[in-house]
């Protein structure tokens, strides 16, 4: 039986919410430490600064792509390319994260669009990150190239 795997990220915040700043570190992979601050989250994203919503989007886009790839292979139609983007909307006036738009463009040989759409929707519903985000509406726009 596979053993559980735990991955870690760390955040350090200095100061109050609106004038403070912090960092987010990918601890397990050691791929980097990224600056963050309130403005990047609530007003406008800026180059070189991340937000919790961007990290959630990265996690969802990656998880969906992996899940979809596996399902397509099990269907006998392995993908050539799966490209996914997750746009996470944060609206403080509405209480935080208000929705996620998952956009997928895939190149797959010998698959009918109906099967492609069915498997894409199933992957969206069953990937572990989607399951963790059940309190947020996730829409899917999947295109077969």
Q: What does this protein look like?
A:
Residues 20-33 have a biased composition (Polar residues). This is Peroxiredoxin. GO terms for molecular function: peroxidase activity. The chain is of the alpha+beta class and 145 residues long. It has four helices and six strands; from the N terminus they run E-E-E-H-H-E-E-H-H-E. Strand 2 (21-26) and strand 3 (32-37) form a beta hairpin. The mean pLDDT is 95.
How far apart are the termini? 38 Å
Could you state the CATH homologous superfamily of the largest domain? K homology (KH) domain
The gross shape turns out to be globular
Q: By helix and strand content, what is the structural category?
A: alpha+beta
Put simply, the count of helices is 4
How many discrete domains? 2
Which CATH class of the largest domain is shown? Alpha Beta
Beta-strand residue fraction = 35-45%
CATH architecture of the largest domain: 2-Layer Sandwich
Largest sheet: 3 strands, antiparallel
CATH-defined fold name of the largest domain: GMP Synthetase, Chain A, domain 3
**Percent range of helical residues:** 25-40%
**What are the secondary-structure elements, in order, as H or E?**
EEEHHEEHHE
Side by side, the strands of the main sheet go 1-2-3
Radius of gyration: 17 Å
Mean pLDDT: 95
Identify low-pLDDT runs: none
Oligomer: single chain
How many E-type strands?
Answer: 6
């Amino acid at each position: 039986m596979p053993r559980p795997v735990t991955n870690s990220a760390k955040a350090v915040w200095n100061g109050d919410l609106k004038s403070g700043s912090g960092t987010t570190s990918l601890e397990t992979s050691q791929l980097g430490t990224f600056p963050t601050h309130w403005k990047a989250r609530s007003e406008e994203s800026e180059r070189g600064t991340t937000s919790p919503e961007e990290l959630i989007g990265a996690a969802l886009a990656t998880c969906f792509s992996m899940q979809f790839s596996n399902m397509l292979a099990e269907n006998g139609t392995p993908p050539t390319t799966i490209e996914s983007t997750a746009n996470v909307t944060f609206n403080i006036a509405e209480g935080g994260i208000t929705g996620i738009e998952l956009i997928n463009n895939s190149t797959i040989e010998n698959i009918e669009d109906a099967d492609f759409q069915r498997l894409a929707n199933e992957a969206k519903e069953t990937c572990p990150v989607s399951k963790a985000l059940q309190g947020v509406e996730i829409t899917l726009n999947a295109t077969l190239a």
